[in-house]
Amino acid sequence: MEQQARSTDATALASFYRREQLHPDKRYLVQPLPGGAIQELSWGEVGEQARRVASYLHSLDLPPRSHVALISKNCAHWIIADLAIWMAGHVSVPLYPNLTADSVKQILEHSEARVVFVGKLDEWEGMRAGVPAQLPRVALPLAPGDPDLLPWQSVLEQHEPLEGTPSPEPDQLATIIYTSGTTGMPKGVMLTFRSMYFSANNCLRLFNISDQDRLLSYLPLCHVAERQFVEIASLLAGETIFFADTLETFQQDMQRARPTVFFGVPRIWVKFHLGVISKINPRLLDLLLKIPLVGPAMSRKVLSGLGLDQIRYAVCGAAPVADSTMAWYQSLGLNIAEVYGMTENCGYSHLGRPKRYKKGWIGLPNPGVECRLSEEGELLVRSAGTMLGYYKEPEKTAETITPEGFLRTGDIGEIDNEGFLRLTGRIKDIFKTSKGKYVAPAPIENLLSAHSRIEQVCVVGNNLPQPLALVQLSEVGNQDAEQHRQELTRGLSQLLEEINAGLARHEQLSCLVVVKDAWAVENGFLTPTLKIKRNVVEATYQDQFEGWSVSGTHVVWQSHD
Description:
The longest helix is centred in the N-terminal third of the chain and has 17 residues, at 43-59. Residues 1-6 have low confidence and may be disordered. 36% of the residues lie in helices and 21% in strands. The chain starts with a helix and ends with a strand. The protein is α/β, with parallel strands linked by helices.
């Protein structure tokens, strides 16, 4: 019996029980409320609510290990609901908070969800039709008003806290994460308690994280990066989580949290950078940073304004990041570690070490990770973080995991003699020009994104004589376009010539197209983690590619005429 109790220790839920007992009054979750109020929840209060909600789930007499859906933007009660689902012996199925009704219905039916938790949402009216009528619906405290939702407070008042420490076995299914697919049905990645624990626990060791650290949660918790880096890591290490309220309040949320550990996708780091140079001339800033006494003070001022002045570890992942972005932060004294991983391996694969940085390379394999390249150059990785497989998709699982247990990442890469990894593109993103030459767009996009007026880039060229680049300008870039169009055009044309000079002939861009249309999560151009959906961009502008290519102009300004 004692051995059986120990076998369940390697789970995030077991870690939560220990912290709930060790310091029930310590602050854990900090949630902004409507009207500017702030709610702080201790470990004991989180446990009290989770246990009552777990009792409610028990009252439904669901089969063991039923699938329970969770649809909400990030908030404190997202994590409480997740804990309750696990305490009750079930499997959590988080959904992105910006899905259409059809996508909601598709995932709920495919996952065979038995209950739905509904939380903080902007478009619930457009989503609710996708929830089957027979499913019980529970409202988290920040959920939209809806009489069909069972209020959270009613659940708390009507059920006594679940007693004891009900614990799953480590190899039991913990969650099904549906990838933010760009086409067709997203795949349901099955992760166990053991794989999630293994990945988060090893990352904590690499970063030396403790319960004195602070996190800001703003990327979707249903995405593996936020799930592991914020939720699971906090359950293991005891960090305090602050939640962002809205995009408009993000800077205030950063100031309030003053995170000591921060994970950002490349676009977030770029937006921070662009925000700074919109207020101070970049050349002047670079000059000031090099002055012995002035430089350190200026660095502190810039980082403080961004809410990054308390950072011990800064991490970037989920997409390639430009060397120029990394170098800019290094000039401020902030070293960003690049991380690489996938939903299919709990986001756990490679990490840049602060003391072993190599420009242009991501970093070394994490502890417990084996990696190699296939004959085609595809990166293959194997670790205890690897998924069980895709839910109800045995054929896709067999295609993705080799008989030896290596995960096919879909990324083309290089590994040097020290073990450092560099990625050169996604297999599915590589296209062939009409001349029969293959082009990987990611390295070219990174070169273009180094320009201070460019915020987003997508290089295309399938069946075109030469590739071309669609770019979106930053806020300052748009201002320049209105006031100094000719000067900006000359600058972009010069950029194109400089980049083409360093590219192979078949990779050289025919032109840059400055796109006026907004590329956002809401209109389907970006994934929830702000990566460009290449297929959406291509489908939207396909009919104009040929005309742009033969325009004879280095810089083309999109017209809506």
